[in-house]
Specification:
alpha/beta, single chain, globular, seven-stranded mixed sheet, 15 helices
Length: about 425
């Protein structure tokens, strides 16, 4: 073992010795410093980043203007708690969010620290606004790992021996066209799935008890599954018909990832409430709940939020991140990057039957790996080998999907064309090597 290899191994050995085993290890890379789309590990080796901190660094690692904003704010004050002492960065960020993510004529916002907190607070707001207890969610969904968020999350692996879960949570099938359409075309499939939704109001839960339906327009951990356009439109109509609030979880898909500030803007379907985090702060922990003012104001004083509701340093980071995204035109860049990835992977798919599907919006692209040309036979083992092989060649990747058979690409949107294509070369070579 060389000295360089020893440094990374020693760090992982120290991790194993002191960090709880339940903290996941999705990739074996280490980091000494990072910039743009490149992570340099503790041995000095450079890695192209296709994981983006699980979709957190859309604006790249350490954008200079964001780093400067953090430094400037840290010199002024670090924490007062917005509950106790009001500060301008919180208010300015809420104003900025309402401008780029309007919810009707009057939008209001609240800030917290994490995506799971955003989901928890969105559910509380919906329940207080409707005076109803129940929530409908979907299979393959991921909404976090706190109590309500974990109850809404579908994947069993995140919930082992963690019950009892929150009550009044009801789950219906996500309209996954690739997996479940059979011989139906898209219109027939959507109508079938909307009928399932309508039937749930008679067979699963009294619709008059339902406060909200929460859904990711593009599932993240579930496998980068985009919701069909007509299904989301039908879901909006169903909610309107029954006085149910529609919550759209944009935590992974927001902030330029799909070519819009939120993917619901791609669909043209207006949520009542929406949730954000991840790339909003370029890596600093900040999240938001936005909604129509009358809905947001239904929550009683003190019932939402917490001690760390929008750290001033994190607010400064988020404001600088949004401005950087505007200046660098990262929404347009996401569309461009997504086309490069999709075109290459669709072309490569012709020689590789193990690639069952290439899908996504903008630069949020998933590559599903299967066996025997059968969407019902996930190729988990192949996905694991590809992720490991890419890591060895200097490309950081992570998987997704209920069976961890989907390669998800979440590269920083500041990635250069050369870095992007070099990363895709490595990915294609590893797929060839293991198939």
């Amino acid at each position: 073992m060389t000295e360089e290899q020893t440094k990374s191994q020693q760090l992982h050995d120290r991790r194993k010795s002191i960090v709880a085993n339940g903290v996941g290890v999705f990739n074996t890379a280490t980091v000494r410093e990072s910039k743009g789309a490149i992570i340099t590990d503790v041995d000095g080796k450079e890695h192209i980043d296709f994981a983006g901190g699980i979709g957190v660094v859309n604006a790249g690692h350490c954008p200079p203007t964001v780093v400067k904003a953090i430094q400037d704010q840290a010199e002024k004050y670090l924490h007062t708690s917005f509950n106790v002492v009001t500060y301008e960065p919180y208010i300015k960020l809420c104003e900025e969010l309402a401008e780029i993510l309007p919810h009707g004529d009057h939008t209001k916002a609240m800030l917290i620290s994490t995506g799971a907190e955003a989901v928890e607070n969105a559910i509380k707001i919906a329940r207080q606004a409707t005076k109803r207890p129940a929530v409908i969610c979907f299979t393959e969904a991921y909404h976090g790992r706190t109590l309500m968020a974990m109850s809404l999350t579908s994947k069993v692996n995140y919930k082992f021996s963690s019950g009892p879960f929150a009550p009044e949570v009801y789950r219906i099938p996500f309209p996954n066209f690739y997996k479940y359409h059979g011989t139906q075309d898209m219109d027939e499939f959507v109508e079938t799935e909307l009928n399932r939704l309508r039937e749930s109001a008679h067979s699963m839960v009294d619709i008059n008890s339902v406060a909200a339906i929460i859904v990711e327009p593009i599932q993240g951990e579930g496998g980068f599954n985009p919701i069909p356009q007509k299904y989301l439109e039908g879901l909006r109509s169903f909610c309107d018909e029954h006085g149910v609030l529609l919550i759209l979880d944009e935590i992974q898909s927001g902030f330029c990832r799909t070519g819009h500030w939120a993917s619901w803007q791609h669909y043209g379907v207006q949520p009542d409430i929406s949730t954000y985090a991840k790339s909003m702060g370029s890596g600093l922990p900040i999240a938001a709940v936005l909604g129509k003012a009358e809905i947001m104001d239904a929550a009683g004083p003190g019932t939402i939020g917490g001690t760390y509701i929008g750290s001033p340093v994190c607010c400064a980071a988020a404001l600088a991140t949004i401005q950087f995204m505007k200046d660098e035109k990262l929404n347009e860049r996401a569309v461009y990057i997504g086309k490069i990835i999709t075109d290459r992977m669709e072309n490569f798919r012709k020689e590789c039957p193990e690639i069952g599907d290439v899908r996504g919006l903008g630069a949020m692209i998933g590559i599903e790996l299967i066996k025997d040309n059968d969407p019902g036979k996930p190729n988990t083992e192949l996905c694991v080998e590809i992720v490991k092989g890419c890591a060895a060649e200097g490309l950081i990747l992570i998987s997704a999907g209920t069976f961890k058979n989907v390669i998800r690409i979440l590269c920083p949107l500041v990635i250069t064309n050369e870095q992007l294509n070099r990363g895709l070369d490595i990915l294609e070579d590893q797929i060839r090597k293991h198939t």
